[in-house]
Design a protein that fits this description.
Low-confidence stretches: none
Mean pLDDT: 96
Oligomer: single chain
Radius of gyration: 13 Å
Order of helices and strands: EEEEEEEEEEE
Largest sheet: 7 strands, mixed
Number of helices: 0
Strand content: over 45%
Number of strands: 11
Length: 124
Amino acid sequence: QVQLVESGGGSVQAGGSLRLACAVSGTTVTTQCMGWFLQSPGKEREGVALSDRDGKTTYADTVKGRFTIFKDNAKNTLYLEMNSLKPEDTAMYYCAARPFYSGCPMRPSPYIEWGQGTQVTVSS
């Protein structure tokens, strides 16, 4: 049984930083498409950053240059380093996984495993 457990969310002021972590069990981060998604109240879930089984990364335009997704294979954990945070980054952040086939889509619907989410709140 695959489990994804996020941690690291919190409240920060604009310009601050947070590091989110997603501890993975039941599968390995090296065989999956792993991603971070966000959802704001009243809005659809959207992709933030992806890492494929080889570590190739993809970012949403809104976070390029500010966020970094990376994996610690030994800890079987996915991370999202978030710098220069903006109030518009405020959302619930979810970790997700799907088996790697031919690529890692940015849209959330193909992902079958999800964590419970961690709240990020950025104040101005």
